[in-house]
Every structure is written in structure tokens, then in C-alpha cells.
Write a structure and sequence with these properties.
Blueprint: H1 3-9, H2 23-34, E1 45-50, H3 53-59, H4 68-71, E2 74-81, H5 86-100, H6 104-109, H7 112-121, H8 125-149, E3 153-157, H9 162-168, E4 176-185, H10 204-207
Antiparallel strand pairs: 1-2, 2-4, 3-4
Helix pairs in contact: 2-8, 5-7
The chain binds flavin mononucleotide (FMN).
């Protein structure tokens, strides 16, 4: 399938079969998420990969009983950094320096740290979190497209009680807050009322404004 066929094929699957993803496909989706673009490249989030059936059973009521949580193969929890401090920026710039073999002094001379401090670290804490959450959504989108390219179903899910999920997964102690989930698995077409529903989107004319 080409990219448009893959995107037409995918839909937010409501019922899944429980079949497990091959490790290599899961790895490809995680690689795609890791390769996502993010503002300043900071990737201010973590992604929890949940396979445990027991944990997914505990998660289900916190997601209003949605079946995909337990019928999927894995549930990814995109969790944004609750705050972004100078130490995180320093850790990132140090790691960037090592990956690119660009001396840290040279990176600092470009003024990148100053800009990151001003644009992110100086924000009130809740705005830091919202900025981080926006970056997490970009990774979510990348993961959805990657899954579709492999003909793996993926359901993005905001329908869950974030504070309770945070508590279950002990996220506050890690400076994290859950933002959105991605259930990965295989559609149960016979039992999923959405499986044959035509895809609805705004028309090109309504969506795009060529100016
Ligand atoms: C951020 C986000 C949150 C969503 N939350 C849920 C959810 O909790 N449960 C669900 O079944 N679908 C959820 N959806 C799926 C959307 O309803 C779906 O993507 C949209 O209706 C377009 O349809 P399609 O993705 O099936 O083409 C969510 C989608 C996004 C992008």
C-alpha cells in the first residue's frame, strides 16, 4: 500500500482480537516514535510500553472500560514531562554534543541553550507541561502512521482519567503526566461497528486555504 492507501486503511479501532504484535513490528513503531520531530529536538516526554495483561486490566476502567485496552497487544502511554528545568536542557545539549561530535562550547556559542531557557524553562510550570504535551502528540501521530504502514491497527485514546492513570503508573514521581494512549493490535472487524464505516474528513476545499 502507498501512504494514502495506508491512511485510508487505518481507523481508530474499537475492537481488537488480542493477537500479539511481532517484536520486529513493535520495534519499528517504537523506532518511528523515537525519530519524531520535536521543538528544539528535546523530546520532552517518555513513552511507557505496556504489554502486561494484568496492568492493562487495571487500566481499562480508568479508560471508561474501552475494549481496546485489553484486546490490544500493547498500550503505549505518551507521558509528557510535567516540568522542564535547566538540568534537562543541559543533559540534552550534552547528549547532542556527543551524538554529533560537535563540541558543547560550539553549541553554546550558537545561543541554543539561551533560547531554550527563554522559550521553555522560563515558562510557568503548567505551560511547560502543555508545551511538552504538544510535542508528545507529534510522536503519537508518527506512531499512528508507522503502524498503518505495517497494517497494524492503532487507536489513539484521550478517553481516560489522566490523574488516575498517573497514579496507577506512578508517573508523578518521575516528573511525568499521561497525555494520550495508543493501543496497538489487530482489528476484530466482525465485532467492530467502525470497521466498515466510511472514513469522514473535511473536503479539500473546506480544509485547505490556498493563499
Ligand atoms: C488525540 C485523540 C484522542 C482520541 N481518543 C479516542 C478514544 O479515547 N477512544 C476512541 O475509540 N477513539 C479515540 N480517538 C479516535 C478518533 O475519534 C478518530 O481518530 C477520529 O474520529 C477519526 O477517525 P479515524 O481515525 O477512525 O479515521 C482519538 C483520536 C485522537 C487523535
Amino acid at each position: 500500500m502507498n501512504i494514502i492507501e495506508s491512511l485510508n486503511w487505518r481507523y481508530a479501532t474499537k475492537r481488537m482480537t488480542g493477537k500479539k504484535l511481532p517484536d520486529s513490528d513493535l520495534q519499528t513503531i517504537l523506532d518511528a516514535i523515537r525519530l519524531s520531530a520535536s521543538s528544539y529536538g528535546l523530546q520532552p516526554y517518555n513513552v511507557l510500553v505496556i504489554e502486561s495483561e494484568e496492568l492493562r486490566k487495571q487500566l481499562q476502567p480508568l479508560a471508561y472500560g474501552q475494549a481496546q485496552i485489553v484486546e490490544s497487544s500493547h498500550v503505549l502511554v505518551f507521558a509528557a514531562w510535567n516540568s522542564v528545568d535547566e538540568a534537562k536542557v543541559d543533559e540534552y545539549l550534552q547528549a547532542y554534543s556527543e551524538t554529533t561530535s560537535m563540541p558543547l562550547e560550539k553549541i553554546l556559542a550558537f545561543g541554543i541553550k539561551d533560547r531554550m531557557m527563554q522559550a521553555i524553562v522560563s515558562l510557568p510550570q503548567d505551560e511547560q507541561y502543555h508545551w511538552a504535551a504538544k510535542q508528545a502528540y507529534i510522536a503519537l501521530g508518527t506512531g499512528i502512521v508507522a503502524a498503518a504502514s505495517l497494517e497494524i491497527d492503532a487507536t489513539p485514546m484521550e478517553g481516560f482519567m489522566a490523574a488516575k492513570v498517573d497514579e496507577l503508573l506512578d508517573l508523578p514521581s518521575k516528573n511525568l503526566r499521561s497525555v494520550v494512549l495508543l493501543a496497538l493490535g489487530y482489528r476484530d472487524a466482525a465485532n467492530d461497528f467502525m470497521a466498515k464505516t466510511p472514513k469522514h474528513r473535511w473536503s479539500e476545499e473546506k480544509l485547505f486555504m490556498h493563499i
